[in-house]
Design brief:
globular, 5 helices, binds iron/sulfur cluster
Length: 179
């Protein structure tokens, strides 16, 4: 099995519910996505090395992305009882984080220079060292798609992978850029 196909199979074995090809040339980085980070509704802005401004300028993030041309979109979809089922939302978010961690640990054996991009701020440490000390685990820290300036729904649409899987479902999205 070729390495790219092996990574697709690996992603499914790590628990992702949907995995799709990603043409990196379709990725547009958007100032408005970074501006929405600065509105700080998630309260992670300026608190974490994985979030703006700690993760680098938009131009620096784009430069990292343009080192690649092919990758995979990684989705974890779960079911909610209703739109207020916060317990399930948290459970799906945790599952997605766990899937990404397992995947990241294995994919680097096949593609040592790959870039795994996650969802949300890095929560590896109890309190992030930002901005006073360097990141404790730079090899394990994942920057989110939004922090890189990507509009997640647009990236999925431009690569023909659904983002919405029906009423009372929730999907978290990450991706890996391979080469
Ligand atoms: S690994 Fe720790 S120090 Fe590094 S970004 Fe994550 S929380 Fe912050």
């Amino acid at each position: 099995m070729k390495a790219f196909e092996a990574v697709h199979a690996l992603a499914l074995s790590c628990g992702f519910s949907h995995v799709g090809d990603l043409d990196v040339r379709t990725i547009r980085v958007r100032t408005e996505v970074r501006d929405s980070c600065a509105e700080n509704t998630c309260r992670a802005y300026r608190t974490n090395w994985s979030c703006p401004p700690g993760c680098g300028t938009l131009a620096e993030c784009e430069q990292r992305i343009r080192n690649y041309h092919r990758g995979l979109i990684l989705q974890t979809t779960g079911v909610l009882e209703d739109s207020l089922d916060y317990e399930a939302m948290e459970r799906i978010a945790l599952a997605h984080g766990k899937n990404l961690d397992t995947f990241r640990a294995h994919v680097r054996l096949l593609y040592p220079s790959c870039l795994v991009i996650g969802a949300g701020a890095c929560t590896r440490c109890g309190a992030c060292t930002y901005p006073h000390e360097p990141c404790r685990f730079p090899e394990q820290m994942l920057v989110s798609m939004e922090a890189m300036g990507m509009l997640v729904s647009e990236v999925c649409k431009d690569n023909a992978l659904p983002y919405y899987y029906g009423p009372n479902t929730l999907t978290y999205v990450g991706c890996v850029l391979l080469y």
